[in-house]
Write a structure and sequence with these properties.
The chain has 78 residues and is mainly alpha-helical. 46% of the residues lie in helices and 0% in strands. Helix 2 packs across helix 4. The longest helix has 13 residues, at 22-34.
Length: 78
Amino acid sequence: MARARNIKPSFFQNEDLAELTPITRLAFIGMWTIADFKGCIEFRPKRLKVQLMPYDDCDFEVIANDLDKSGLIAIYSV
C-alpha cells in the first residue's frame, strides 16, 4: 500500500544524490512511498517502473543499480 512521506529540505543538498540523474533521484523518492515500515521493497524492476515512472522512458534496473552503487539502497536476496 502506498504511504505519504515527507521530504526534508536537506534532501536536495545531499552530495551523494547530486551525483545521480534527476530521474534516479525522483525514483528514489517514489520508492519511499511503496516501501514497507522496514523500508523494504520487492525488487521487481518492471513492476516498479509501472508503479513509479509510468510516463518516463527509463530502465528501473539501471536506476536501482545506480542507487545501490551509491549506497542509498541495498539490493539483496533471501
